[in-house]
Amino acid sequence: MGLDDSADAFGVLSPPLVDLPRGDAGAVITSVETYALAVPLKQPIADSTASLRSWIVPVVEIRTADGRVGTGISGVHCAPELLCDVISRYYAPSLLGAASEDILGTWKRLYWLPTHWLGRAGAVHMALAMVDIALWDLAAQRAGVPLWRLLGGSAEAIETYNTDGGWLNYPVDTLVRDLTSLIDRGWRRVKIKVGKPDWREDAHRVRAVRRAIGDGITLMCDANQRWDLSTAGRLLPALEEVGMDWIEEPLHADALDGHARLQRATRVDIAAGESLYSYHHFASFIAADAIRVVQVDVTRVGGVTEWLQVAHHAAAHGLRIAPHAGDMMQVHQHLVGTALSDVPPLVEFIPWTQDAFEQRSVVNEGYLERPQLPGASTAVHRDARRDWQIRGVGHVTDQGGTVAKPRRSRTTETRNEGEDQ
Protein backbone atom coordinates (compact mmCIF):
# COMPACT_ATOMS: atom_id res chain seq x y z
CA MET A 1 0.00 0.00 0.00
CA GLY A 2 1.33 3.45 -0.87
CA LEU A 3 1.65 5.97 1.88
CA ASP A 4 -0.97 8.26 0.34
CA ASP A 5 -3.60 5.48 0.13
CA SER A 6 -4.74 6.43 3.64
CA ALA A 7 -5.37 10.11 2.84
CA ASP A 8 -9.14 9.63 3.21
CA ALA A 9 -8.86 7.68 6.49
CA PHE A 10 -11.02 9.99 8.58
CA GLY A 11 -13.32 8.85 11.34
CA VAL A 12 -16.79 10.21 12.05
CA LEU A 13 -15.27 12.28 14.87
CA SER A 14 -12.37 13.44 12.65
CA PRO A 15 -13.78 16.16 10.37
CA PRO A 16 -11.97 17.05 7.12
CA LEU A 17 -9.64 20.03 7.22
CA VAL A 18 -12.05 22.24 5.31
CA ASP A 19 -14.27 22.31 8.41
CA LEU A 20 -11.45 23.42 10.71
CA PRO A 21 -10.40 26.99 11.57
CA ARG A 22 -6.98 27.76 10.13
CA GLY A 23 -5.89 30.31 12.74
CA ASP A 24 -2.65 32.20 12.16
CA ALA A 25 -1.47 31.58 8.59
CA GLY A 26 2.10 31.19 9.81
CA ALA A 27 1.06 28.30 12.03
CA VAL A 28 -0.24 26.15 9.16
CA ILE A 29 1.54 22.78 8.98
CA THR A 30 3.41 22.37 5.70
CA SER A 31 5.39 19.15 6.15
CA VAL A 32 5.82 16.18 8.47
CA GLU A 33 9.06 14.22 8.73
CA THR A 34 9.73 11.08 10.76
CA TYR A 35 12.98 9.25 11.50
CA ALA A 36 14.67 7.40 14.36
CA LEU A 37 17.99 7.39 16.18
CA ALA A 38 19.75 4.48 17.88
CA VAL A 39 21.85 6.15 20.57
CA PRO A 40 24.55 3.76 21.86
CA LEU A 41 24.90 3.17 25.59
CA LYS A 42 28.27 3.34 27.29
CA GLN A 43 27.86 -0.24 28.48
CA PRO A 44 25.20 -2.97 28.14
CA ILE A 45 22.43 -2.85 30.74
CA ALA A 46 19.56 -5.15 31.69
CA ASP A 47 16.43 -5.27 33.77
CA SER A 48 14.15 -8.27 34.31
CA THR A 49 12.67 -8.06 30.80
CA ALA A 50 15.28 -6.69 28.39
CA SER A 51 18.99 -6.27 27.69
CA LEU A 52 20.04 -3.10 25.85
CA ARG A 53 23.07 -1.75 24.01
CA SER A 54 21.33 1.36 22.67
CA TRP A 55 18.25 3.49 23.30
CA ILE A 56 16.05 4.13 20.28
CA VAL A 57 14.53 7.59 19.82
CA PRO A 58 11.73 7.88 17.21
CA VAL A 59 11.36 11.51 16.06
CA VAL A 60 8.75 13.60 14.25
CA GLU A 61 9.52 17.09 12.96
CA ILE A 62 6.48 19.22 12.07
CA ARG A 63 7.21 22.29 9.94
CA THR A 64 4.95 25.31 9.68
CA ALA A 65 4.53 28.08 7.12
CA ASP A 66 6.50 30.55 9.24
CA GLY A 67 9.60 28.31 9.05
CA ARG A 68 9.43 26.89 12.56
CA VAL A 69 10.04 23.22 13.34
CA GLY A 70 8.37 21.46 16.24
CA THR A 71 10.00 18.22 17.36
CA GLY A 72 8.27 15.33 19.08
CA ILE A 73 10.09 12.29 20.44
CA SER A 74 9.54 8.90 22.00
CA GLY A 75 11.75 6.18 23.45
CA VAL A 76 11.59 2.45 22.67
CA HIS A 77 13.58 -0.75 22.89
CA CYS A 78 12.78 -1.77 19.31
CA ALA A 79 10.52 -1.26 16.26
CA PRO A 80 10.64 2.54 15.87
CA GLU A 81 9.22 2.09 12.37
CA LEU A 82 5.84 1.27 13.91
CA LEU A 83 5.51 4.71 15.48
CA CYS A 84 6.95 6.50 12.46
CA ASP A 85 4.64 4.67 10.05
CA VAL A 86 1.54 5.54 12.07
CA ILE A 87 2.48 9.20 11.77
CA SER A 88 3.54 9.10 8.11
CA ARG A 89 0.72 6.88 6.82
CA TYR A 90 -2.23 7.88 8.93
CA TYR A 91 -1.60 11.10 10.85
CA ALA A 92 0.18 13.21 8.23
CA PRO A 93 -2.92 13.58 5.99
CA SER A 94 -4.78 15.00 8.99
CA LEU A 95 -1.91 17.35 9.88
CA LEU A 96 -0.94 18.94 6.55
CA GLY A 97 -2.78 22.22 6.08
CA ALA A 98 -4.05 22.26 9.67
CA ALA A 99 -3.20 24.92 12.26
CA SER A 100 -0.47 23.82 14.64
CA GLU A 101 -2.06 26.05 17.30
CA ASP A 102 -5.13 23.80 17.44
CA ILE A 103 -3.47 21.34 19.82
CA LEU A 104 -6.51 19.88 21.57
CA GLY A 105 -8.52 19.77 18.37
CA THR A 106 -5.70 17.96 16.59
CA TRP A 107 -5.36 15.51 19.49
CA LYS A 108 -9.04 14.59 19.23
CA ARG A 109 -8.98 14.29 15.43
CA LEU A 110 -5.97 11.98 15.46
CA TYR A 111 -7.24 9.95 18.40
CA TRP A 112 -10.56 9.22 16.65
CA LEU A 113 -9.10 8.23 13.29
CA PRO A 114 -9.74 4.58 12.35
CA THR A 115 -6.34 3.82 13.93
CA HIS A 116 -8.21 4.17 17.25
CA TRP A 117 -9.62 0.71 16.60
CA LEU A 118 -6.08 -0.67 16.26
CA GLY A 119 -4.49 0.84 19.32
CA ARG A 120 -5.75 2.96 22.20
CA ALA A 121 -2.42 2.01 23.79
CA GLY A 122 0.99 1.03 22.53
CA ALA A 123 2.46 2.18 19.22
CA VAL A 124 -0.57 4.09 17.90
CA HIS A 125 -1.02 6.08 21.10
CA MET A 126 2.73 6.68 21.41
CA ALA A 127 2.72 8.08 17.86
CA LEU A 128 -0.03 10.47 18.95
CA ALA A 129 2.21 11.51 21.86
CA MET A 130 5.04 12.36 19.46
CA VAL A 131 2.79 14.64 17.40
CA ASP A 132 1.35 16.28 20.51
CA ILE A 133 4.82 16.97 21.93
CA ALA A 134 5.85 18.54 18.61
CA LEU A 135 2.81 20.84 18.64
CA TRP A 136 3.51 21.95 22.22
CA ASP A 137 7.15 22.54 21.22
CA LEU A 138 5.89 24.82 18.44
CA ALA A 139 3.49 26.60 20.81
CA ALA A 140 6.31 27.39 23.26
CA GLN A 141 8.57 28.56 20.43
CA ARG A 142 5.86 30.86 19.11
CA ALA A 143 5.35 32.25 22.62
CA GLY A 144 9.12 32.75 22.96
CA VAL A 145 9.32 30.84 26.25
CA PRO A 146 10.39 27.40 27.50
CA LEU A 147 7.48 24.98 27.71
CA TRP A 148 7.44 24.86 31.52
CA ARG A 149 6.82 28.62 31.62
CA LEU A 150 4.04 28.36 29.02
CA LEU A 151 2.40 25.72 31.25
CA GLY A 152 2.67 27.90 34.35
CA GLY A 153 5.44 25.98 36.13
CA SER A 154 7.77 27.57 38.67
CA ALA A 155 11.42 28.33 37.99
CA GLU A 156 12.62 26.36 41.03
CA ALA A 157 15.07 23.51 40.48
CA ILE A 158 13.48 20.05 40.59
CA GLU A 159 14.90 17.16 42.62
CA THR A 160 15.83 14.09 40.58
CA TYR A 161 16.28 10.43 41.41
CA ASN A 162 18.94 8.48 39.55
CA THR A 163 18.17 5.19 37.79
CA ASP A 164 21.42 4.83 35.88
CA GLY A 165 23.36 2.66 38.30
CA GLY A 166 21.11 -0.05 39.66
CA TRP A 167 20.88 -2.51 36.76
CA LEU A 168 19.95 -6.13 37.23
CA ASN A 169 22.87 -7.48 35.20
CA TYR A 170 25.38 -5.92 37.61
CA PRO A 171 26.89 -8.19 40.27
CA VAL A 172 26.37 -6.93 43.80
CA ASP A 173 29.82 -5.33 44.10
CA THR A 174 29.34 -3.41 40.83
CA LEU A 175 25.83 -2.43 41.87
CA VAL A 176 27.07 -1.02 45.16
CA ARG A 177 30.02 0.75 43.52
CA ASP A 178 27.83 2.43 40.91
CA LEU A 179 25.22 3.58 43.42
CA THR A 180 27.92 4.89 45.74
CA SER A 181 29.42 6.90 42.88
CA LEU A 182 26.02 8.48 42.21
CA ILE A 183 25.66 9.44 45.85
CA ASP A 184 29.16 10.92 45.81
CA ARG A 185 28.02 13.11 42.88
CA GLY A 186 25.14 14.53 44.88
CA TRP A 187 22.12 12.27 44.43
CA ARG A 188 20.10 11.50 47.55
CA ARG A 189 17.59 9.26 45.77
CA VAL A 190 18.57 6.16 43.76
CA LYS A 191 16.69 3.24 42.23
CA ILE A 192 17.71 -0.36 41.62
CA LYS A 193 16.26 -3.12 39.47
CA VAL A 194 14.87 -6.31 40.97
CA GLY A 195 13.20 -9.34 39.43
CA LYS A 196 15.80 -12.10 39.62
CA PRO A 197 14.48 -15.64 38.95
CA ASP A 198 15.08 -16.49 42.62
CA TRP A 199 13.34 -13.95 44.90
CA ARG A 200 15.91 -14.61 47.63
CA GLU A 201 18.61 -13.10 45.41
CA ASP A 202 16.53 -9.92 45.19
CA ALA A 203 16.27 -9.85 48.97
CA HIS A 204 20.03 -10.26 49.28
CA ARG A 205 20.73 -7.48 46.79
CA VAL A 206 18.44 -4.89 48.40
CA ARG A 207 19.88 -5.63 51.84
CA ALA A 208 23.44 -5.33 50.53
CA VAL A 209 22.66 -2.00 48.90
CA ARG A 210 21.06 -0.57 52.04
CA ARG A 211 24.04 -1.59 54.15
CA ALA A 212 26.40 0.08 51.68
CA ILE A 213 24.56 3.39 51.16
CA GLY A 214 23.33 3.92 54.71
CA ASP A 215 19.96 5.03 56.03
CA GLY A 216 20.14 8.64 54.81
CA ILE A 217 19.63 7.80 51.13
CA THR A 218 16.18 7.20 49.66
CA LEU A 219 16.07 3.83 47.89
CA MET A 220 13.48 2.64 45.34
CA CYS A 221 13.21 -0.58 43.34
CA ASP A 222 11.67 -1.62 40.01
CA ALA A 223 10.53 -5.18 39.24
CA ASN A 224 9.42 -4.46 35.64
CA GLN A 225 6.29 -6.62 36.11
CA ARG A 226 8.24 -9.81 36.86
CA TRP A 227 6.62 -10.79 40.16
CA ASP A 228 3.31 -12.42 40.92
CA LEU A 229 1.40 -11.78 44.15
CA SER A 230 3.03 -14.72 45.89
CA THR A 231 6.58 -13.63 45.03
CA ALA A 232 5.85 -10.03 45.93
CA GLY A 233 4.45 -11.18 49.27
CA ARG A 234 7.62 -13.11 50.04
CA LEU A 235 9.73 -10.03 49.34
CA LEU A 236 7.66 -7.49 51.27
CA PRO A 237 9.41 -8.15 54.63
CA ALA A 238 12.85 -7.49 53.08
CA LEU A 239 11.62 -4.38 51.28
CA GLU A 240 10.05 -2.97 54.43
CA GLU A 241 13.16 -3.91 56.43
CA VAL A 242 15.40 -1.77 54.20
CA GLY A 243 12.93 1.13 54.16
CA MET A 244 12.19 0.84 50.43
CA ASP A 245 10.46 4.04 49.31
CA TRP A 246 8.47 2.43 46.49
CA ILE A 247 8.07 -0.79 44.53
CA GLU A 248 7.70 -0.04 40.82
CA GLU A 249 5.65 -2.30 38.54
CA PRO A 250 5.72 -5.30 40.90
CA LEU A 251 3.01 -7.15 38.93
CA HIS A 252 1.70 -7.34 35.37
CA ALA A 253 0.82 -3.79 34.34
CA ASP A 254 -2.87 -4.60 33.78
CA ALA A 255 -3.36 -6.34 37.16
CA LEU A 256 -5.36 -3.57 38.80
CA ASP A 257 -6.83 -5.77 41.53
CA GLY A 258 -3.43 -7.33 42.20
CA HIS A 259 -1.81 -3.93 42.68
CA ALA A 260 -4.63 -2.86 45.00
CA ARG A 261 -4.28 -6.03 47.09
CA LEU A 262 -0.52 -5.58 47.29
CA GLN A 263 -0.84 -1.92 48.31
CA ARG A 264 -3.19 -2.90 51.14
CA ALA A 265 -0.62 -5.45 52.34
CA THR A 266 2.39 -3.12 52.69
CA ARG A 267 3.59 0.20 54.02
CA VAL A 268 5.79 0.57 50.92
CA ASP A 269 4.21 2.69 48.18
CA ILE A 270 3.29 0.97 44.93
CA ALA A 271 4.47 2.87 41.83
CA ALA A 272 3.24 2.36 38.25
CA GLY A 273 2.64 4.20 35.02
CA GLU A 274 5.34 3.17 32.57
CA SER A 275 2.88 0.74 30.99
CA LEU A 276 -0.35 2.70 31.49
CA TYR A 277 -1.31 4.53 28.32
CA SER A 278 -4.27 6.77 29.07
CA TYR A 279 -6.00 9.01 31.57
CA HIS A 280 -8.66 6.32 31.91
CA HIS A 281 -6.08 3.69 32.91
CA PHE A 282 -4.61 5.97 35.56
CA ALA A 283 -8.03 7.02 36.84
CA SER A 284 -8.97 3.37 37.38
CA PHE A 285 -5.77 2.60 39.32
CA ILE A 286 -6.14 5.74 41.41
CA ALA A 287 -9.80 5.03 42.20
CA ALA A 288 -8.86 1.51 43.37
CA ASP A 289 -5.99 2.84 45.56
CA ALA A 290 -3.73 0.54 43.53
CA ILE A 291 -0.86 3.05 43.25
CA ARG A 292 0.55 5.81 45.44
CA VAL A 293 3.29 6.97 43.03
CA VAL A 294 1.98 8.02 39.62
CA GLN A 295 4.67 7.52 36.98
CA VAL A 296 2.84 9.02 34.03
CA ASP A 297 5.16 9.10 30.99
CA VAL A 298 4.57 11.75 28.32
CA THR A 299 5.73 9.30 25.63
CA ARG A 300 3.26 6.58 26.67
CA VAL A 301 0.13 8.60 27.29
CA GLY A 302 -0.99 10.91 24.49
CA GLY A 303 1.72 13.52 24.90
CA VAL A 304 1.71 16.73 26.95
CA THR A 305 -2.07 17.14 26.60
CA GLU A 306 -2.96 13.86 28.29
CA TRP A 307 0.00 14.00 30.70
CA LEU A 308 -1.39 17.20 32.19
CA GLN A 309 -4.80 15.61 32.62
CA VAL A 310 -3.31 12.65 34.52
CA ALA A 311 -1.02 14.85 36.63
CA HIS A 312 -3.81 17.15 37.77
CA HIS A 313 -6.01 14.17 38.62
CA ALA A 314 -3.22 12.53 40.64
CA ALA A 315 -2.35 15.76 42.43
CA ALA A 316 -6.00 16.25 43.39
CA HIS A 317 -5.86 12.84 45.11
CA GLY A 318 -2.71 13.73 47.05
CA LEU A 319 -0.49 11.28 45.18
CA ARG A 320 3.14 11.62 44.23
CA ILE A 321 3.92 12.34 40.57
CA ALA A 322 7.29 10.94 39.46
CA PRO A 323 7.28 10.40 35.68
CA HIS A 324 8.87 7.40 34.06
CA ALA A 325 11.42 8.91 31.68
CA GLY A 326 10.92 7.23 28.31
CA ASP A 327 12.02 10.58 26.89
CA MET A 328 15.19 10.51 29.01
CA MET A 329 13.69 13.59 30.80
CA GLN A 330 13.91 15.97 27.80
CA VAL A 331 10.20 16.82 27.96
CA HIS A 332 9.54 15.88 31.57
CA GLN A 333 11.96 18.53 32.78
CA HIS A 334 9.30 20.98 31.59
CA LEU A 335 6.26 19.08 32.87
CA VAL A 336 7.10 18.18 36.46
CA GLY A 337 5.84 20.73 38.93
CA THR A 338 3.14 22.16 36.66
CA ALA A 339 0.28 20.55 38.61
CA LEU A 340 -0.80 22.20 41.87
CA SER A 341 0.25 19.71 44.55
CA ASP A 342 1.37 19.57 48.17
CA VAL A 343 3.90 16.90 47.20
CA PRO A 344 7.28 18.17 45.91
CA PRO A 345 7.87 17.31 42.23
CA LEU A 346 10.37 14.62 41.30
CA VAL A 347 11.86 13.60 37.96
CA GLU A 348 13.79 10.51 36.88
CA PHE A 349 17.35 11.17 35.75
CA ILE A 350 18.65 8.98 32.91
CA PRO A 351 21.40 10.64 30.83
CA TRP A 352 21.60 8.23 27.88
CA THR A 353 20.44 10.56 25.11
CA GLN A 354 21.88 13.90 26.21
CA ASP A 355 24.21 14.06 23.20
CA ALA A 356 21.27 13.58 20.82
CA PHE A 357 19.69 16.97 21.56
CA GLU A 358 20.69 20.55 20.96
CA GLN A 359 19.83 21.46 24.55
CA ARG A 360 21.34 19.29 27.27
CA SER A 361 19.79 19.00 30.71
CA VAL A 362 21.58 20.69 33.62
CA VAL A 363 21.70 18.81 36.94
CA ASN A 364 23.64 20.03 39.99
CA GLU A 365 23.82 18.06 43.24
CA GLY A 366 20.85 15.98 42.14
CA TYR A 367 18.66 18.98 41.25
CA LEU A 368 17.53 19.73 37.70
CA GLU A 369 17.64 23.33 36.55
CA ARG A 370 14.74 24.47 34.39
CA PRO A 371 15.61 24.91 30.69
CA GLN A 372 15.70 28.50 29.51
CA LEU A 373 15.41 28.33 25.71
CA PRO A 374 12.01 28.54 23.99
CA GLY A 375 10.37 25.21 23.21
CA ALA A 376 10.30 21.73 24.72
CA SER A 377 14.07 20.95 24.54
CA THR A 378 13.41 18.29 21.89
CA ALA A 379 15.32 19.66 18.89
CA VAL A 380 17.71 16.96 17.65
CA HIS A 381 21.37 17.85 17.19
CA ARG A 382 22.47 17.52 13.57
CA ASP A 383 25.45 15.39 14.58
CA ALA A 384 23.06 12.88 16.15
CA ARG A 385 21.26 12.47 12.83
CA ARG A 386 24.56 12.11 11.03
CA ASP A 387 25.90 9.46 13.40
CA TRP A 388 22.90 7.55 14.77
CA GLN A 389 19.99 7.77 12.34
CA ILE A 390 18.54 4.35 11.49
CA ARG A 391 18.45 3.60 7.78
CA GLY A 392 15.06 2.97 6.20
CA VAL A 393 12.92 4.29 9.05
CA GLY A 394 10.63 7.26 8.48
CA HIS A 395 9.39 9.48 5.65
CA VAL A 396 8.99 13.10 4.62
CA THR A 397 5.49 14.24 3.61
CA ASP A 398 4.69 17.73 2.34
CA GLN A 399 1.57 19.58 1.23
CA GLY A 400 2.13 18.55 -2.38
CA GLY A 401 1.56 14.98 -1.35
CA THR A 402 5.10 13.87 -2.13
CA VAL A 403 6.58 11.24 0.11
CA ALA A 404 10.27 10.42 0.39
CA LYS A 405 12.66 8.65 2.70
CA PRO A 406 14.22 10.96 5.32
CA ARG A 407 17.54 12.61 4.69
CA ARG A 408 20.88 11.58 6.18
CA SER A 409 19.94 7.91 6.48
CA ARG A 410 23.30 6.61 7.64
CA THR A 411 23.23 3.33 9.56
CA THR A 412 24.20 3.22 13.23
CA GLU A 413 26.29 0.08 12.81
CA THR A 414 29.19 2.16 11.50
CA ARG A 415 29.17 4.22 14.66
CA ASN A 416 28.94 1.18 16.94
CA GLU A 417 31.69 -0.91 15.37
CA GLY A 418 34.85 -0.87 17.44
CA GLU A 419 33.31 1.20 20.23
CA ASP A 420 33.68 0.09 23.82
CA GLN A 421 30.07 -0.10 25.08
Strand content: 15-25%
Structural class: alpha/beta
Q: What is the spatial order of strands in the main beta sheet?
A: 5-6-7-8-9-10
Major sheet characteristics: 6 strands, parallel
Mean pLDDT: 91
- Globally, the shape reads globular
- Taking the alpha carbons of the first and last residues, their distance comes to 39 Å
Low-pLDDT runs of 5+ residues are 1-7, 409-421
Residue share in helices?
A: 25-40%
Beta strands, count: 15
The topology string of helices and strands comes to EEEHHHHEHEHEHEHEHEHEHEEEHEEH
Helix count, DSSP H or I runs of 4 or more residues: 13
Give Rg in angstroms. Answer: 21 Å
Question: Your description of this structure?
Answer:
- The chain is an alpha/beta fold and 421 residues long.
- Helices cover 33% and strands 19% of the residues.
- It is built from 13 helices and 15 strands.
- It has helices at 80-95, 103-111, 123-143, 147-150, 172-184, 199-213, 229-241, 256-264, 279-287, 303-316, 332-335, 382-388, 413-416; strands spanning 29-46, 51-64, 69-73, 158-162, 189-193, 218-222, 246-248, 269-272, 293-294, 320-321, 346-349, 362-364, 367-369, 396-398, 403-404.
- The protein has a six-stranded parallel beta sheet. The protein has a five-stranded antiparallel beta sheet with strand order 3-2-1-14-15, with helices on both faces. A four-stranded mixed beta sheet has the order 11-4-13-12, with no helix packed on it.
- The longest helix is centred in the N-terminal third of the chain and has 21 residues, at 123-143.
- It is globular.
- Mean pLDDT is 91; it is low at 1-7 and 409-421.
